[in-house]
Design a protein that fits this description.
Order of helices and strands: HEHEHEHEEH
Shape: globular
Number of strands: 5
Number of helices: 5
Structural class: alpha/beta
Strand order of the largest sheet: 1-3-2-4-5
Length: about 140
């Protein structure tokens, strides 16, 4: 591991923990992503994590609040980290390739198919409460 990779690992570790401490499973490789998507039934909440400020101040807190307050909970919680786990992120995005790549972003999959997507544009410059409510509503609609 070179000095840059070591430096970035130290920076992103707490960003990863913010989700893993709330039950998210990190998918670190393309094979991890393929295995999850091919085997998962029901709803999967997939967070494309990022080092940017809107991920820290909006996306991750909004997702965590949605999970705490939503009437409907997803069956699976997974995350990939854009810019860090590049192959895993590219593979996750391949399951919703009609959507332009953005990070952070939030995807809800139903039986491996994209059912709802919240891109960076609907995260950045919005409130945590807006993201929470938008995600909670999406989870309810997908469960119907």
């Amino acid at each position: 591991m070179n000095a840059y990779d070591e430096y970035m690992k130290g920076i992103v570790t707490p960003m990863r923990k913010e989700l893993t401490d709330h039950g998210f499973k990190e998918l670190l490789t393309a094979d991890d992503v393929n295995a999850h998507v091919s085997e998962a039934t029901g709803t999967t909440l997939a967070v494309i994590n990022s080092v940017c400020g809107c991920a820290a101040s909006l996306a991750r807190p909004g997702v965590i609040e949605a999970l705490e307050k939503a009437a409907v909970k997803p069956d699976h919680l997974v995350t990939v980290f854009a810019g860090q786990d590049k192959e895993a992120t590219a593979q996750m995005r391949s399951y919703f390739e009609d959507v332009p790549p953005s990070s952070p972003s939030i995807a809800v999959l139903k039986d491996g198919q994209l059912a709802h997507f919240i891109p960076r544009e609907q995260i950045e410059d919005h409130s945590v409460e807006h993201i929470r409510d938008q995600l909670a509503q999406a989870l309810e609609q997908v469960a119907e």
